[in-house]
Every structure is written in C-alpha cells, then in structure tokens.
Design goal:
homodimer, about 375 residues, alpha/beta, Arc Repressor Mutant, subunit A, Nucleotidyltransferase, domain 5, 3 domains, five-stranded mixed β-sheet, 15 helices, 16 strands, about 40% helix, globular
Chain lengths: ~375, ~375
C-alpha cells in the first residue's frame, strides 16, 4: 500500500511537475499526515525536494514538492535512419544534455552504431548530475522490435534483420537497465504521457519519414501484441493496384503516403529531400499536387478509426508537415468512416515536435522507478556499491 | 486478499471445471488450509459443491471441488439478424435450456424484439434451477454498441440507429443486471475463455454473416476503444475500386468477403441463401470460383496480422465455412505479411461452433461474480429480499 501510494505520488510529480502538499492531498484523497510521510520518504531517497512556498496565500502556506532533477535520470536515444539523437532526461522530464551523431554510412553496420551509442553514453554520463541515480538506457528504433528481449527483427531502412541490440548493448555497457522499443511505440507513449494526447486513453500515433509506423495506446496501455510487433499500420494494404512496398506486398498504406509518394506527388525524383520539397508548398491552397496523397491519408486514418475507435490520432513524422496541407482531403475521407467512432476522434499534431520517440524511450525506463520508487533506487544503489 | 483469492479460485472452477483441493493448492500456490477455508466459503455461498473423490489414489484422497451448476446462472441472448437464440448458462459454463425465436419481419421493430426478449426471459426463468442466483442478462447484438450504457448506435442489418437497448430492457425487466455488447466482441471473449483461443492473450476473432465484425483481445483484455466501437475490421478499405459498402465507403473488406461477395462468386443472385450455395462446394479443389474472395480474405487477415500481431485469428461466422475452401489463397497472401508477426500467428476455426456470441454474452455477466464471488451473491440476494 505504501509502495502503491509512493508510486502514485511520484508519477504525479514526474509527469505534472511541482505540486503543493495541499494539492497532493486533494489529488490523491490521502490525508495530510500520510502525504507528509510519503513526501519525506521520497525526499530521503533523493527523488523530490520540498520547499517552503515563495508567495503568501491565505492561511498556512503549503509546502511545495518538486521532482528532484538532480536525483535520477535516464539516458535516452532516438536511433534514426541517418543519425542518433541522445539526451540525458531528468526526473520530471527535463532534457538536460542533447547530442547528435550521424551514421557514417547508409545502412549502417550494427556494430558501428553500437560503438556510437557507447561513445554517446560516455559523453552523456559525464554531463549527468553528479550523485544522481542512473536508471538505465532507453532506445527507440525505426523497426520491428521483439518485446521480450529487445531483438530488432527488422529495420528495413537501416538494413537490419535480427540484430540483438539490447543484448549487445548490455555486453558493452554492463550494469545499465536497457529498454529497446519501436520508435512509434515510444512516440505514442510520450504523446500520451506528456504531449497532445495527454488524458486520452486510446491513441493512434503515426510516425515515420520513409515509411509509416504506428504506436497504439488502448485503455492507457501500449498495444504490444504477441511479440511486440503490433502497430505496423503502414503495412495495411489499402490500394492493391498500388506500387510494390519494401515489405513485399503491393499497395501498403506507406506506399501511398510515405516519403516516396510525397516526393513523387511534388514532382521530385526518388531520393530528393522531402522536407525541402514540402517546405516549398506555402499553404493548403497551393497543395493541389498533394490531393491524392491526402485522400490516401484520409482513407487509412478512416480505417484506423473504424478498427481502434481512438480518442485521438496524432500525425507525427512526415505527416506532421503533410496533414496541415491536406486537411480538407483527410476530413472528406473521414466523413464516411463509421459515425460512432468518427464522432469521438480528433486529429492532432504532436505536442513535442520531433522529440516524441526520445522522450518515450526515456519514459519506458522511468517506468520501473515510478512503479516502485524506493525499491528501484535501493536496488540500483546496491548494485553500484557491489 | 481473501476476495482476490476467492475470485481466482472460482474463475479456475468456472472455466476449467472440477478440480481437487490438492490441484487447487498446486495451481494457486496457496497452502492447504487457506484453500480449504476458501472452498468452504464458496460452498456456503452455494457456488461450489465439495465431494469426496470416487476413485482411490495413493495417499489420502483429495476432496473434489465442482462449480455448482444449481447455484448461479445467467440469461444469455444472441440477437441475430433473423432470429434470437436464448439460453440459461449455468455456473461452470453449461448451457441448460436453449430457445430460438424468429423475428416477425426484416428490419424488426426494436419494441417487437424487446417484447420477444421479455417472453424468452420468462420462459428461461421458468426453466432455471430453483433457488439459484440469477446473475443477470447478457445480450450480443450485431451492431455497434456504446460501452457505457448499452446504446445500440448502429445495427445496419437490423435497420437500427441509436436504440437504447439496455435501458429499455431494464425498464421491462427491472432487477436484472444487463450487459449489451457487440456480437463479435462477445464471441472473441468466448473463444478466448473457452474455445480455440484459450490460452492466447492476443486474439482477432472474425464473425458475421452479412457483414464482417471483429472482436479483438489484446493482452487478455477485450479492446474497447474510446466508446466501445473498436474492432470494426469489416470497414477497413482494402479495395478502393471495389463496390459501395452499406457504411457509405467503397471497397470495405466486407464488400469483398461478406455474404454478398460469396453469393456473387458462386453465381447466385443477391438474396440467395449463402449457406446453401457454400454447401454445394464439396472441397477446396472445387472452390475455384471462390479464389478471388479467398485472396481478399488473405489480404485483410494480413493487414490485421501486421496491425495487431495476434497469436491467433479465429474465422467465425460465414468465414468458418469459407476458410477451409480458400485456405491456399489465404496462405499465399499471408506469406507476404511482415515476417515477425506472421511467424507468431495461427489461423483457427471457432471452438464452439456458432455459440460463441451466446457464451460470450453469458461470460460478460459472470464477470461480476468471478470478480467478487461472495459480494456479488450477497448483493443480489439482498436486492431480491428487498
């Protein structure tokens, strides 16, 4: 029970920021002395800081409780097709130190990338708050990741098949808890916890640049599926007469709305930079050439609305730029989705720019701390001392 | 804790049948005296019967614990397009009394159907074990049902829009707990708990005759979505050049694999009885005319495998007869689904013939008993006495 209450309390602080003891009492329904005992426990473990409030209110001022940014952190990595973004993410969600490293080559060698992650880890650790607890490493990957052991089954745009990323990273960096997940799954969790889908329990998050990945939150929990491979919504066939997909099928959704389709629609050649081409489209009024892509975006979102009945569909990755240009076409296609689920859904752009996967990777590691704050800290301190 | 253990124990018995006290000890990890106290509590509440074992084993024979079929029951209804199936489903899952009533007309008037349900209820109650606790009514409906209050938003093949079935049934039959759900959702739960998907935590259950509905189990829980409308997999667009769907879109999956498509493929006219036409196809070797339907079945299942990463896809309803005839086409299409989820999935036919929705409707009501056995029985007995 105490563990459960500590967990609730630290979760509120980590996700919501500083709160007064009085507000904690109100939010949790716990009585004042229990709240005091809990925050004292968390403060002793270095996880929160308690301060007298600065302003003067009516009545006795309530002590402010703040997540201790100097108390615990995660090393977060967003492994992308062409580069890796890395950061120290502090308790409370702040991003303390941010680095990028480009891959030396297209279809990078896994060992080269693991070496890069090892170097980035050393740099990040040097930047991290001294005496803080390092909770572990979280890694978002643009591919299909086995949930049980962090094996990357298939990362088509990296050229990877069956790369045991979590295991190899554990060999190189012993002593760190390591979570490896699909980038869209990580992004979905970040938007659910801290972004535009906050408060929504049923979320479809779309991401990806070259392809289209999906992260699905249902009833507040990430959809994992039998092996962790769920959410590959880019590989729904929507146009059987369409073009061949990297996956081998014909007319997958991502062949109609992915980078190549957008480049083609805008008159570019395969390999032309899609972001630059999109940047030249000033507004939806000038987005005529994208109409067909927009229609396909709407057809696929309509499918997902009928299949998942989400509260919100978040268009991340390339779709973040695309959606505002083709919103009319999308709306028109959605108007013929089933009425009941259509009434409940809203379309949204990501709340955290392009950091969703990075933040989600961090949150996947924070979870162990939030689940059992004191136990987790004690365990890590004991291991460090051994 | 006691409630939790009573719940575990009754669930084992309800879903698994008679077990010896010794096996309960083994299955639950509880010690012998705790198990004895729990089974005694359940026996006093009329939920289990304890008997000395008949045979003679080595050592002291262990008392057999059996779910008490005469202790509690549910009134279950499978409302279909042309008729209603009704039954008393006993604790332990036995079907005690089974009735059918045809609707008087196509697109039946909701009040006529509610009257029919009321009459069936009176008949079932007369058949039910005397002194047993009636846990309530469970109703499976071929339509989109709002989870919060059992409002039928849309049942296209009944011609129903926004019919408050649960509320109106509660007016007619006060004092009964009432659960109303989508038939494919109910069927999915039944196959997960008692059928071919037993032990599988991630299940796609396909059902339907005229259309194609889906019930999805993820991580052992029914996918509900924001309003209870999730799982409408028949309304994924897979063939945008296909025919117009009842829902208003073009080329939904059910236009390619539903009753009309099968009738057309077999040379019948709209309205011809699909079951009779299918019965004339002796084997897969003679199922050439169904090849295209089979291909679409495979395309759609491939989409669902990529999106949900299920352990099993159960082909119920019309697909139960169709799948064996077109298994080759389906397999060929599945071979190009993503490798990782494809490796994990098996295709199956329902384990409970056409009773899945009926049994699932019953299980949706048993859930309250299984969650809190003694509390539920006490509550219902107190209400009956008041």
């Amino acid at each position: 029970m105490r563990r459960h209450n500590l967990s609730r309390l630290l979760r509120i602080l980590h996700l919501g920021g500083p709160v007064s003891r009085a507000d904690i009492t109100r939010l949790t329904g716990l009585n004042r002395s229990t709240v005091g005992a809990l925050t004292t426990d968390l403060a002793r473990a270095g996880l929160v800081v308690e301060r007298d409030p600065v302003g003067r209110g009516v009545g006795r001022p309530s002590i402010m409780v703040t997540p201790n940014e100097a108390g615990a952190f995660v090393l977060a990595f967003d492994l992308r097709v062409e580069r890796t973004i890395a950061a120290v993410v502090l308790l409370g969600g702040g991003v303390a130190s941010r680095r990028e490293a480009r891959h030396a080559e297209h279809d990078p060698d896994p060992d080269a990338v693991l070496g890069q992650l090892e170097r980035l880890t050393a740099e990040l650790l040097a930047d991290a708050p001294p005496d803080a607890v390092c909770l572990g490493m979280g890694l978002a990957i643009p591919g299909v990741v086995r949930h049980s052991d962090g094996l990357v089954r298939f990362a088509p745009n990296m050229g990877w098949v069956d790369v045991p990323v979590a295991a190899r990273l554990a060999d190189r960096l012993p002593g760190h808890a390591i979570t490896v997940g699909n980038d869209a799954d990580m992004g979905a969790m970040a938007e659910h916890l801290r972004g535009v889908a906050r408060g929504s329990q049923n979320v479809v998050f779309l991401a990806g640049q070259v392809g289209v990945g999906g992260g699905i939150i249902l009833g507040g929990r990430l959809m994992v599926g039998a092996g962790g491979y769920g959410g590959e919504v880019g590989h729904m066939v929507v146009n059987p007469r369409g073009s061949r997909c990297r996956c081998g099928r014909r007319g997958c959704w991502e062949t109609e709305i992915g980078e190549e389709a957008v480049v083609r629609a805008l008159g570019g050649r395969p390999g032309d930079p899609v972001d630059a081409l999109l940047a030249e489209v000033p507004s939806a009024a000038e987005a005529g050439p994208l109409a067909e892509v927009g229609r396909w975006l709407g057809v696929g979102i309509g499918n997902l609305v009928n299949v998942f009945n989400p509260d919100v569909v978040v268009c991340g990755g390339l779709l973040r730029k695309l959606l505002p240009l083709v919103a009319d076409q999308v709306r028109r296609e959605l108007e013929v989705a089933l009425q009941a689920p259509r009434e409940q859904v809203r379309l949204a752009l990501p709340g955290m720019d392009r950091d969703a996967a990075l933040i989600g990777a961090a949150e996947s590691v924070f979870e162990a701390l939030l689940d059992d704050p004191l136990g987790c800290v004690e365990r890590i301190r004991a291991e460090a001392a051994a």
